[in-house]
User: Fold this.
Amino acid sequence: MPDTNRVRMVKSAAPDVDTYLAELPDDRRSHAVVLRDLCRAELAGCTEVMAYGMPNYQFDGVAEIAFAVQRNYLSFYLLRDDVREEFAQRLAGQDMGKGCLRFRGPAGPDTELVRDLLRAVARRPGGRVC
Assistant:
């Protein structure tokens, strides 16, 4: 019998983000929906796609942001080096991987931090907004 308590969503085969979210256990889905809603609100001109088995937000075909539900945390991938550098001080005390911010526990993502990061991502060189 399969272990239904184990979450393996990093490499989801879901064809779209709605399906990805629907596959998540209820207790994990709510936090992922928060990230999706923030991405959609702040990156309104970016394209939402599934890539590498997780939701991605792209500008001109280049991934800017992604997120994934992991077994023990929610990963928020900030794929812009310039934004990571701009926020180095605020990110210093966070649970960070090489390119991701990890949110653990029932509190879910730090929505204020995520919103600020997304707004920085949306500011494109030359004042363009994605």
Notes: The chain has one domain: 17-122. The radius of gyration is 14 Å. Residues 17-122 form a domain with the Aspartate Aminotransferase, domain 1 fold (CATH 3.90.1150.200).
